[in-house]
Design goal:
alpha/beta
Length: 145
Protein backbone atom coordinates (compact mmCIF):
# COMPACT_ATOMS: atom_id res chain seq x y z
CA UNK A 1 0.00 0.00 0.00
CA UNK A 2 1.38 3.37 -1.03
CA UNK A 3 0.94 6.42 1.19
CA UNK A 4 0.36 9.71 -0.64
CA UNK A 5 2.33 12.76 0.33
CA UNK A 6 0.41 15.96 1.28
CA UNK A 7 1.31 17.62 -2.05
CA UNK A 8 0.01 14.59 -3.95
CA UNK A 9 -3.23 14.66 -1.96
CA UNK A 10 -3.67 18.36 -2.72
CA UNK A 11 -3.04 17.83 -6.45
CA UNK A 12 -5.43 14.88 -6.52
CA UNK A 13 -8.12 16.96 -4.78
CA UNK A 14 -7.64 19.82 -7.26
CA UNK A 15 -7.88 17.45 -10.23
CA UNK A 16 -11.05 15.87 -8.83
CA UNK A 17 -12.56 19.30 -8.17
CA UNK A 18 -11.78 20.46 -11.72
CA UNK A 19 -13.35 17.29 -13.14
CA UNK A 20 -16.52 17.75 -11.10
CA UNK A 21 -16.72 21.41 -12.12
CA UNK A 22 -16.40 20.43 -15.78
CA UNK A 23 -19.17 17.84 -15.41
CA UNK A 24 -21.43 20.35 -13.62
CA UNK A 25 -20.78 22.95 -16.32
CA UNK A 26 -21.98 20.56 -19.03
CA UNK A 27 -25.24 20.12 -17.12
CA UNK A 28 -25.85 23.88 -16.96
CA UNK A 29 -28.37 25.20 -19.49
CA UNK A 30 -27.00 26.88 -22.59
CA UNK A 31 -27.66 30.63 -22.38
CA UNK A 32 -28.42 32.37 -25.67
CA UNK A 33 -29.23 35.96 -26.58
CA UNK A 34 -31.12 36.43 -29.84
CA UNK A 35 -30.39 39.95 -31.14
CA UNK A 36 -33.18 41.56 -33.16
CA UNK A 37 -32.91 44.90 -34.97
CA UNK A 38 -34.22 44.33 -38.50
CA UNK A 39 -38.02 44.23 -38.30
CA UNK A 40 -40.83 41.81 -39.04
CA UNK A 41 -39.08 39.38 -41.46
CA UNK A 42 -36.25 38.87 -38.94
CA UNK A 43 -38.81 38.38 -36.15
CA UNK A 44 -40.59 35.67 -38.16
CA UNK A 45 -37.27 33.86 -38.68
CA UNK A 46 -36.40 34.25 -35.02
CA UNK A 47 -39.71 32.83 -33.77
CA UNK A 48 -39.13 29.72 -35.89
CA UNK A 49 -35.46 29.50 -34.84
CA UNK A 50 -36.40 29.76 -31.15
CA UNK A 51 -39.13 27.11 -31.47
CA UNK A 52 -36.63 24.77 -33.15
CA UNK A 53 -33.99 25.65 -30.55
CA UNK A 54 -36.31 24.77 -27.67
CA UNK A 55 -37.45 21.56 -29.39
CA UNK A 56 -33.80 20.47 -29.55
CA UNK A 57 -32.82 21.85 -26.14
CA UNK A 58 -35.83 22.49 -23.87
CA UNK A 59 -33.54 23.62 -21.04
CA UNK A 60 -31.91 26.45 -23.00
CA UNK A 61 -32.14 29.88 -21.38
CA UNK A 62 -33.14 32.25 -24.19
CA UNK A 63 -33.35 36.03 -24.04
CA UNK A 64 -34.52 38.03 -27.07
CA UNK A 65 -33.15 41.57 -27.07
CA UNK A 66 -34.69 44.06 -29.50
CA UNK A 67 -33.92 47.58 -30.67
CA UNK A 68 -34.56 49.66 -33.77
CA UNK A 69 -37.01 47.98 -36.12
CA UNK A 70 -36.49 44.79 -34.13
CA UNK A 71 -39.03 45.93 -31.53
CA UNK A 72 -41.92 45.99 -34.02
CA UNK A 73 -43.08 42.40 -33.45
CA UNK A 74 -43.43 43.16 -29.72
CA UNK A 75 -45.76 46.11 -30.26
CA UNK A 76 -49.51 45.99 -29.80
CA UNK A 77 -51.26 44.55 -32.87
CA UNK A 78 -48.06 43.38 -34.63
CA UNK A 79 -48.56 40.86 -37.42
CA UNK A 80 -46.20 38.86 -39.61
CA UNK A 81 -45.96 38.94 -43.41
CA UNK A 82 -49.03 36.65 -43.64
CA UNK A 83 -51.06 38.98 -41.39
CA UNK A 84 -50.90 36.54 -38.46
CA UNK A 85 -50.53 38.16 -35.03
CA UNK A 86 -47.27 37.69 -33.17
CA UNK A 87 -49.03 37.87 -29.78
CA UNK A 88 -49.81 34.14 -29.57
CA UNK A 89 -46.28 33.06 -30.52
CA UNK A 90 -44.73 35.52 -28.07
CA UNK A 91 -47.02 34.37 -25.25
CA UNK A 92 -46.28 30.71 -26.05
CA UNK A 93 -42.50 31.26 -26.00
CA UNK A 94 -42.71 33.34 -22.83
CA UNK A 95 -44.61 30.45 -21.26
CA UNK A 96 -41.62 28.26 -22.11
CA UNK A 97 -39.26 30.62 -20.32
CA UNK A 98 -38.11 32.83 -23.20
CA UNK A 99 -37.55 36.43 -22.07
CA UNK A 100 -38.17 39.42 -24.33
CA UNK A 101 -36.46 42.79 -23.83
CA UNK A 102 -37.21 46.04 -25.64
CA UNK A 103 -34.88 49.03 -25.96
CA UNK A 104 -36.15 52.16 -24.25
CA UNK A 105 -33.88 54.32 -26.44
CA UNK A 106 -35.80 53.03 -29.47
CA UNK A 107 -39.16 53.68 -27.81
CA UNK A 108 -38.11 57.24 -26.98
CA UNK A 109 -36.63 58.03 -30.40
CA UNK A 110 -39.68 56.61 -32.19
CA UNK A 111 -42.07 58.26 -29.71
CA UNK A 112 -43.74 54.96 -28.81
CA UNK A 113 -45.37 54.71 -25.40
CA UNK A 114 -44.16 51.73 -23.35
CA UNK A 115 -47.80 50.71 -22.84
CA UNK A 116 -47.80 49.59 -26.52
CA UNK A 117 -45.17 46.92 -25.76
CA UNK A 118 -46.34 43.31 -25.29
CA UNK A 119 -46.91 42.49 -21.64
CA UNK A 120 -44.42 39.59 -21.90
CA UNK A 121 -41.60 42.02 -22.72
CA UNK A 122 -39.47 44.02 -20.33
CA UNK A 123 -38.23 47.49 -21.29
CA UNK A 124 -34.47 47.93 -20.78
CA UNK A 125 -32.53 51.21 -21.05
CA UNK A 126 -30.55 50.16 -24.15
CA UNK A 127 -30.91 47.10 -26.35
CA UNK A 128 -27.29 47.24 -27.49
CA UNK A 129 -26.01 47.61 -23.93
CA UNK A 130 -28.26 44.76 -22.77
CA UNK A 131 -26.93 42.46 -25.50
CA UNK A 132 -23.34 43.32 -24.58
CA UNK A 133 -24.02 42.85 -20.86
CA UNK A 134 -25.56 39.41 -21.37
CA UNK A 135 -22.54 38.31 -23.40
CA UNK A 136 -19.79 39.86 -21.29
CA UNK A 137 -21.15 39.46 -17.77
CA UNK A 138 -23.56 36.53 -17.92
CA UNK A 139 -21.91 34.26 -20.49
CA UNK A 140 -24.67 34.26 -23.11
CA UNK A 141 -23.94 33.04 -26.64
CA UNK A 142 -24.87 35.57 -29.34
CA UNK A 143 -27.24 34.64 -32.19
CA UNK A 144 -28.65 36.90 -34.87
CA UNK A 145 -31.41 35.25 -36.91
Amino acid sequence: MRILQPVQVTLLALALSASLTAVAATDAPVKVVYHMSEGIPQASRAINNIRNHLAADPNAKIVVVTHGLGIDFLLEGAVNQMEQPFAGAVADLAGKGVEFRVCNNTLASRKIDASKVAMEAKVVPSGVAETARLQAREGFVYLRP
